[in-house]
Amino acid sequence: MAHPPQTSPDVDRQEPRAVRLSVIIITKNEADHIAECLDSVAFADEWIVVDSGSTDATREIARDKGAYVEQTADWPGFGPQKNRALALANGQWVLSIDADERVTPELREAILDAMEQDAHQGYRIARLSNFCGRWIRHSGWWPDYVLRLFKRGTTRFTDAIVHESVMPPEQVGTLSQHFLHYPYNNLETLIAKVNRYSTDGAAMMYDKGRKTGIAGIIVHSVWTFVRIYIVRRGFLDGPEGFILAAVGAAGSFFRYSKLFFLQRRGNP
Question: What is the dihedral of CA 37, 46, 154, 122, to 10 degrees?
Fold first, then answer.
């Protein structure tokens, strides 16, 4: 796939150029993904990468691929960080993509066609995700619609620390094609993310006044396994489906256990 045209990392952001489609990506230590991600969106006019302190070659690779790269000194959470990237975009349309996602040739054509027709202000796009080499079509992972293509100025991201989303504009459509998503090449990556997200999730619940006890921790954990493996038919995803349900239950256990200890710390 062709690379994006090369751009100096010292591009003057004070003089925005007229572009039709801007791609925005937030990163941290995504050297294994960023090149293929940018290659898949080579058809765009502008690529914005906002990096939160990568210690690998993420920024250098992104610049070599033609992206404008800006590094932030802090980490405000996923929603605020994506809004920072959005603020740097100049395009009439914006495509938000994660470094571990890929735009297929079919999705590229669907995006260009949607922009040409101009029938909606935003579009939802499905994601087909890969877990340890298997495409997951159940377990609540498919079709996993996310609103990622939208007209600049019609919306923004929520300020959520985790599980951020684009606030739907007035007119929203759905594209017929999907992203390819490579979030977890191994189980260790999933477990590390579950641990990290459970900490942020517990903090969000605590700030909203949520409370739990031991019974709540157990009920939420058990229900999470049942919901993923039975209700969402994770059993059809084979051994990987069972593992995803078990890790999901563990994530719920961690999140509510951390909330429990936040409560105890706040009410000695």
Answer: -40
